[in-house]
Design goal:
Elements lengths: L3 E8 L2 E8 L4 H8 L18 E4 L2 E4 L12 E3 L12 H8 L9 H16 L12 H5 L7 H7 L10 H15 L2
Parallel strand pairs: 1-5
Antiparallel strand pairs: 1-2, 3-4, 3-5
Helix pairs in contact: 2-6
Amino acid sequence: MVPEHAITLHINETPHELTVDVRTTLLDLLREELGLTGTKKGCDHGLCGACTVAVDGERVVSCLTLAVSIDGSAVTTVEGLSAGDDLDPVQQAFLDHDGFQCGYCTSGQVSSAHALLREHARGDLSVVSFEGDSRAALDGCTVLNEDEIRERMAGNICRCGAYANIVDAIVAAAERTSR
């Protein structure tokens, strides 16, 4: 008999009471049980970032996150970023700057970029933050330049190589959200 567990998740602001096999990943729950197929299964080993979502505002790779481990949490997928037909600034920037080619990694890239902007706004530092002016890093006042973006997006792989456009999209989204 497969062990199951009752959980409650708030997915894209909608509460869900579910009974899941304790081995079910968040990715499989989203795609197979709830039909939220925007989140993609790439490598299924946590290496490519295609399955990136936010759990309680922090980005995670959903293929390595057991659904039972986040009972009571708020999950935001790429489908939950927009408000109806109004795209999130990150989504709009990806369209405006052609931040995708085949599009397979795009949902993970967008979700990760969305989290990156939140992390930077609250002063979280990256390795690149300490290169150059270490005083600015200690003050948490790093500039979100291309190197900083590339470092923070390092866990998201684009097999088409659209990295330059992805960086441009994130720069534009950062400018749009900082107004």
